[in-house]
C-alpha cells in the first residue's frame, strides 16, 4: 500500500474501501504489514488494543452473520461489495465511531498540513518529533517540534522546543462531537517579542512641558532621569514614554498622553516597570502604575516596581493556573527569582476594589506569608487617598514613607 500514490493512501475513503475489502475475500490482498501509513498503523495495531471499540479493527467473533449484515458504510459507496463468509467485522456501534474517527482524521490532517506540519510519518497517541515549520529548527536544523495527536485524531497539540521559536498551539477536529468543518479552535502562534531600542522607537529626552507635568505631581526631574522616562511625538501630540528595562536592556515601552490616554508598544514583552531596581532587594514594593513607582522614589524607595497591566476587576474564583497558563501574570512568573530572594513583598496597590483584587492575586501567587499590605491615609471623613502618587501630592514624601514603614502583614485566611 505504501507504493500507492499519496492522494490514495491519504484518502480516508480509501480506508473505508479497505475495510470493505477486509470483509471480503479480497482481504487477503491487504496483509497488515503493507499498512505503512501512520493512519493505518493506528487503525490496525499489531498488538490487541485494550479499547477495541475506538478502533477500526474488525473484531473477531464466533457468531456467523448473514450476508445482509455486511458492512454498511454510509458514505463510501462500496458497501454493496459481495460479502464472503469470514468473521464478523464490527459491532454496529463501532460504525458511527469509525465514521467519526475518519472524519477527525480528514479534518485534522488538513488542518495540520495547512499549518505546514507534515503528518505523513506521525503516529497518533504518542509524541512525534518533527521539523518545526515556524523556525525550521533554527541554524542547527534541530527536529524541535513536539506534536501529540490523540489516538482518534480528535485533537492535536504541539510545541517547538527551539529557544528562539517556542511556537505552540492546539486544535480540535470536531466541536461538541459534531462533525463540523466550521468550528475550528484558534491556533495560537507564539510571537517572539520585538527587539526595541530608544533610537528605534524615536524616543526623545523630556521637554520642559512634560517635566512641568510631573513636577505638578511632585515627581522630580532627577527621578525622571534615573528611571529613563522619555517622550515621543506623534504629530502635534507629546506622549510620555515609560521605558521598561531588564538587566539594562529595553524590553517594552508604555505611552501616556498628557491627557491620560495610554497605550503600550506593540508586540513587546510585559515586565514590571522598574524591574532592575528590585534585583537583590530584600524588601520589594509593588504598586499599580508608573506614576506610583516614581512617587515611591520621591519618598526614598527605589526598591519598587509597578505592574505592567493595571488591576483586574475582581479576584478570580478559580485556582491559580499553572505558571505557563497564567497569561495575565507572566510578568510575575518571569522574575520569580527576584521575588524568591526577597523576604518581604509590600503590596501597595490602589485602595479601590480592583487594586485590592490585584493585591490578592499577587499574594496568592507569591505566598501570603511573605506579603505585607499598606493602609492609605484618610483624605476626609468618607474617603481615603487611593494611591502612592496621591499621598505624595497631597501629604508629601514623608507621609508616603510612613505608609510603607507602617505596612502590616497581609491577612492569612
Ligand atoms: Zn520552531
UniProtKB/TrEMBL annotation:
InterPro entries: TOPRIM_DnaG/twinkle, TOPRIM_dom, Twinkle-like
Gene3D superfamilies given in the database record: 3.40.1360.10
Domain of life: Eukaryota
Any one GO molecular-function label of the UniProt entry: single-stranded DNA binding
Residue ranges annotated for the Toprim domain, each copy included: 282-400
A Pfam family the protein falls into: Toprim_4
PANTHER family: T7-LIKE MITOCHONDRIAL DNA HELICASE, TWINKLE MTDNA HELICASE
This protein's name: Toprim domain-containing protein
Species of provenance: Corchorus capsularis
Amino acid at each position: 500500500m505504501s507504493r500507492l500514490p499519496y492522494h490514495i493512501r491519504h484518502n480516508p475513503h480509501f480506508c473505508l474501501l479497505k475495510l470493505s475489502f477486509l470483509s471480503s475475500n479480497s482481504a487477503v490482498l491487504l496483509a497488515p504489514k503493507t499498512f505503512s501509513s501512520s493512519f493505518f498503523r493506528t487503525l490496525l495495531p499489531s498488538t490487541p488494543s485494550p479499547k477495541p471499540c475506538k478502533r477500526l479493527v474488525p473484531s473477531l467473533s464466533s457468531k456467523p452473520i448473514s450476508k445482509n449484515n455486511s458492512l454498511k458504510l454510509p458514505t463510501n459507496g462500496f458497501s454493496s461489495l459481495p460479502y464472503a463468509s469470514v468473521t464478523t467485522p464490527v459491532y454496529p456501534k463501532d460504525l458511527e465511531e469509525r465514521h467519526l474517527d475518519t472524519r477527525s482524521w480528514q479534518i485534522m490532517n488538513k488542518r495540520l498540513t495547512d499549518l505546514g506540519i507534515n503528518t505523513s510519518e506521525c503516529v497518533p497517541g504518542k509524541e512525534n518529533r518533527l521539523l518545526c515549520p515556524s523556525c525550521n529548527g533554527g541554524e542547527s536544523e534541530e527536529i524541535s517540534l513536539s506534536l501529540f495527536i490523540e489516538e482518534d485524531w480528535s485533537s492535536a497539540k504541539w510545541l517547538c522546543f527551539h529557544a528562539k521559536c517556542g511556537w505552540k498551539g492546539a486544535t480540535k477536529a470536531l466541536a461538541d462531537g459534531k462533525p463540523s468543518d466550521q468550528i475550528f479552535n484558534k491556533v495560537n502562534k507564539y510571537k517572539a517579542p520585538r527587539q526595541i531600542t530608544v533610537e528605534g522607537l524615536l524616543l526623545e529626552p523630556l521637554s520642559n512641558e512634560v517635566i512641568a507635568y510631573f513636577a505638578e505631581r511632585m515627581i522630580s526631574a532627577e527621578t525622571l532621569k534615573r528611571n529613563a522616562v522619555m517622550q515621543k511625538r506623534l504629530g502635534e501630540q507629546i506622549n510620555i514614554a515609560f521605558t521598561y528595562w531588564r538587566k539594562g536592556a529595553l524590553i517594552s515601552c508604555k505611552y501616556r498622553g498628557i491627557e491620560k490616554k495610554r497605550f503600550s508598544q506593540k508586540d513587546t514583552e510585559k515586565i514590571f516597570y522598574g524591574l532592575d531596581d528590585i534585583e537583590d532587594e530584600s524588601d520589594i514594593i509593588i504598586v499599580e502604575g508608573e506614576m506610583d513607582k516614581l512617587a515611591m522614589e520621591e519618598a526614598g524607595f527605589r526598591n519598587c516596581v509597578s505592574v505592567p497591566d493595571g488591576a483586574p476587576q475582581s479576584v478570580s474564583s478559580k485556582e491559580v493556573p499553572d505558571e505557563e497558563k497564567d497569561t495575565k501574570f507572566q510578568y510575575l512568573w518571569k522574575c520569580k527569582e527576584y521575588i524568591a530572594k526577597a523576604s518581604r513583598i509590600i503590596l501597595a496597590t490602589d485602595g479601590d476594589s480592583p487594586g485590592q483584587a490585584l493585591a490578592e492575586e499577587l499574594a496568592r501567587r507569591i505566598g501570603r506569608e511573605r506579603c505585607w499590605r499598606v493602609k492609605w491615609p484618610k483624605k476626609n471623613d468618607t474617603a481615603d487617598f487611593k494611591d502612592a502618587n496621591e499621598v505624595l501630592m497631597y501629604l508629601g514624601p514623608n507621609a508616603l514613607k510612613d505608609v510603607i514603614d507602617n505596612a502590616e502583614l497581609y491577612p492569612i485566611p
